Amino acid sequence: MKPSKYGFIHSIETLGTLDGPGLRTVVFFQGCPLRCKFCHNVDCVMPRCGSQYTPDQLCERVLKNREYWGASGKDGGVTVSGGDPTYQPEFLLAFIRRLHKQNVHIVVDTSLMTSTKVIESIFPFVDLWMVSVKHMEEKKHQYLTGFSNKRILTNIRFLDTLLDGKPKSRIRYVVVPGITDTVSALRKFADFVSKLSSIESIELLPYERFGVHKWIELYGVYPFQQVPIATKNHINAVARELAHIPYALRTAGTVNI
Q1: What is the structure's pLDDT at 164?
Q2: In a domain, 116, yes or no
Q3: How far apart are CA 244 and CA 142, in angstroms?
Q4: What is the pLDDT of residue 198?
Q5: Residue 31 in contact with residue 82, Cβ under 8 Å?
Q6: For the chain, what is the mean pLDDT?
Q7: What pLDDT is stored for residue 5 in this prediction?
Q8: What is the Cα–Cα distance from 13 to 28, expressed in whole angstroms?
Q9: Distance in angstroms (rounded) separating the CA atoms of residues 206 and 149
Q10: pLDDT of 79-128, one tens digit each?
Q11: Order of strands across the sheet that contains 7-16
Q12: Per the domain annotation, does 167 fall within a domain?
């Protein structure tokens, strides 16, 4: 994989608390292979937009926040998100390789809609994988994202094999009322994750409408306007349905539900 001289970055959040352990600098990459109807960062989907950085420039920028992360990896570090950072694989590799040399705790937030080659290339430098599962049923996944989930599920299994039992993957599941919280969908999700061996936790993310203004500005319409947001009751109902799986359940910013 040839190194990329420049990467396209949407924005940098300096004191993130929801995307990995501790206080984190969250780098939002431009570009995404999916087209999720509920995306709250829809302006990150478009490639080759935002600010341009070289790997060294971006590394220098985020290391300015190091004093806020704490002394150990559990206290904080850098999360690469988006969009989906694997959409810029060469730049991602060059960036996190530099951070790894600086002993920075690295989280990759991704759908894994990428190639096994990309996963293998960045694998040695990632401390925690946060992988989003949109829906277990292929037709529903196509409706939600525009694409099949076959590659994603295959890649999750592939990553699980690479991790070899080390709990370094967190599966994130967006609770969309009436769509992803049905008994059928949750049972298929529970069956899938129960067969994995390298999960740190399952994170339930409530569907919100944070990105509506971005959709209206870019496209003039928000496709999920009629879908209700997920309340605490929705999350608790999903947690009860998943209570039997052998992993801790969490919501953003918490350890256990």
Answers
A1: 97
A2: yes
A3: 28
A4: 97
A5: yes
A6: 93
A7: 84
A8: 8
A9: 21
A10: 999 999 999 999 999 999 999 999 999 999 999 999 999 999 999 999 99
A11: 51-53, 7-16, 23-29, 76-81, 106-110, 128-133, 169-175, 199-206, 249-251
A12: yes
Domain ranges, residue 98: 7-251
Q: Domain total for the chain?
A: 1
Q: How far apart are CA 211 and CA 139, in angstroms?
A: 24
User: Residue 256 domain-assigned?
Assistant: no
Q: Position 166: which residue type? A: K
Strands (E) across the chain are located at 7-16, 23-29, 51-53, 76-81, 106-110, 128-133, 169-175, 199-206, 249-251
- Which residue, among 171, 206, 176, 177, has the nearest Cα to 190 in the 3D structure? 171
The DSSP letter of residue 151 is H
The CATH number of whichever domain residue 104 belongs to comes to: 3.20.20.70
Q: What is the per-residue pLDDT for 71?
A: 61
| 1 located within any domain | no
Beta partners for residue 24, in sequence order: 16, 77
* Band of pLDDT at residue 196, cut at 50, 70 and 90: very high
